[in-house]
Amino acid sequence: MPKGHHYGRTQKRAYTGEYHRIHANIFKSLLTKPLGSYLLNSDYLSDEHRKLALTENENGVRYITFNINEKPHQIGLKLDNSSASNKLYITCPYCQKQRQQLYAIKYAYGCRQCIGLCYASQSERPKERLMRRIRKLRKELWGDDWPAVNNMFEQVAYWPKPKWMRWKKFEQKRNKINELEKQYWPMAIAQMKTTFGDQFTEYL
Predict the structure, then answer these.
(1) Do 105 and 93 contact (CB within 8 A), yes or no?
(2) Which of 119, 92, 87, 88 shows the shortest CA–CA distance to 103?
(3) Does the pLDDT at position 203 exceed 90?
(4) Do 47 and 60 form a contact (C-beta atoms < 8 A)?
């Protein structure tokens, strides 16, 4: 659960980050392997979530089946031949829609919608969402290892240009972050005043 967003309230939502997921691309090699039994290499999954049977129907469509809690969970492997990347999709056992990833819950695999999972960002307040966006843009420009990249008390107005970037492009990106920081600080100050009251006002 995202820390600090619920202020002591009981969590009612289930979030995607709390469940292990399987991605479609890990099954791409099964499109050419012999039919039979296989095992997912994962220390985070139960034995029932790891053991699968690879089969094929009369139309040449391949399926993987997990037997979880004595019930079969069939997942189709569907290759998208319309794109140059030939992206592989896996079908949700419940809604049968093509997905890029499924989530492992206690007795099943399912897509986010069928299981009822939420993204952490859905519980973010506008300030937290804006802060995450600022940090993302900072990392794209200066990299994850930049000393103050996550420090919201440091503003980017005087941060140096990366050596590999042209000035015009750099200034456009930095100006965008500057504008977002200008939007962020009134929100942050308002929350600090709410939290610390008159003490924060006197400090300012």
Answers:
(1) no
(2) 92
(3) no
(4) no
Per-residue tokens: 115 = 């299981």
Predicted structure pTM score = 0.56
Cβ proximity of 52 and 155 under 8 Å: no
Q: How many C-beta atoms surround the C-beta of residue 22 within 10 A?
A: 22
- Cα-trace Rg, the chain: 24
Query: What digits encode the pLDDT tens for the residues 136-158?
Result: 999 999 998 888 898 988 889 88
- pLDDT tens, 20-78? 889 999 999 999 999 999 999 988 889 999 999 999 999 899 999 999 999 999 999 99
Candidates 51, 49, 54; CA nearest to 20 is 49
- φ, ψ for residue 133 (rounded to 5)? -65, -40
Cβ count within 10 A of residue 162: 13
Look up residue 110 and give its two tokens. 């399912």
| Banded model confidence at residue 4, pLDDT cuts 50, 70, 90 | very low
The vertex-111 CA angle with 105 and 113, nearest 5°, equals: 110
Phi, psi of 25 (to 5 degrees): -65, -20
DSSP state of 115: H
Long-range (24+ apart) CB contacts under 8 A made by 133-140 are 133/180, 134/177, 134/180, 134/181, 134/184, 137/173, 137/176, 137/177, 137/180, 138/177, 140/173
Query: Which pair of tokens denotes residue 202?
Result: 């006197």
